[in-house]
Amino acid sequence: MSSQKDFEPLNICVLTVSDTRTLATDTSGQQLQDLLEAAGHRLHGRTLVVDDIYQIRAVTSQWIVDPLAQVVLITGGTGFAGRDSTVEAMTPLFDKTVVGFGELFRQVSYEEIGTSTIQSRAIAGLSNRTLIFCLPGSTGACTTAWEKIIREQLDARHRPCNFVGQLRIPS
């Protein structure tokens, strides 16, 4: 009997945090949607909110309690600008923080943007068995995070470990 696992498509939500973009001009959110669908996952929801702690929390909280949503990808609001508030919005909602995600993201990002990576406050955490990744707003950063970290961690076949077993099973 083989211990090889099968690919399990996940229900993934995409939230763009931006004061300037619309869904029509949201290249980062669209890139994340394209990447997750190309990997075999399902887009469960996609929306855009202005950079406001309470709007970010409101949308994300709806997905955290949605029995079908398993992963949330948030793009934008993770820098040091005055209105960047995604980290502050999400941190109190985490049951557990995936500390290594931010560290690894900055490490792989360094190869692309050098020391500017220190201004990234990318984080991830688990809330109600929903995995949440908070990414910078640039399309390049979203691609880097997906291709070099997230894609493998959302694939049940990835060894020695991945997050699929930590996520809720949709009812």
Share of residues in helices: 25-40%
Name the poorly predicted regions. Answer: none
**Could you give the distance between the termini?**
28 Å
Order of helices and strands: EHEHEHEHEEH
Q: Tally the helices: what do you get?
A: 5
Globular, elongated, flat, extended or rod-shaped: what is the shape?
globular
Q: How many discrete domains?
A: 1
Q: Would you identify the CATH H-level superfamily?
A: MoaB/Mog-like domain
Structural class by secondary-structure content = alpha/beta
Rounded mean pLDDT is 94
The main sheet orders its strands as 2-1-3-6-5-4
Oligomer: single chain
- The CATH topology is Molybdenum Cofactor Biosythetic Enzyme, Chain A
Architecture (CATH level 2) name: 3-Layer(aba) Sandwich
For the sheet with most strands, the description reads: 6 strands, mixed
Query: How large a portion of the residues is in β-strands, by DSSP E?
Result: 15-25%
* CA-based gyration radius: 15 Å
At the first level of CATH, what is the class?
A: Alpha Beta
Organism: Cellvibrio japonicus (strain Ueda107)
Family: Belongs to the MoaB/Mog family.
Keywords: Molybdenum cofactor biosynthesis
Protein name: Molybdenum cofactor biosynthesis protein B
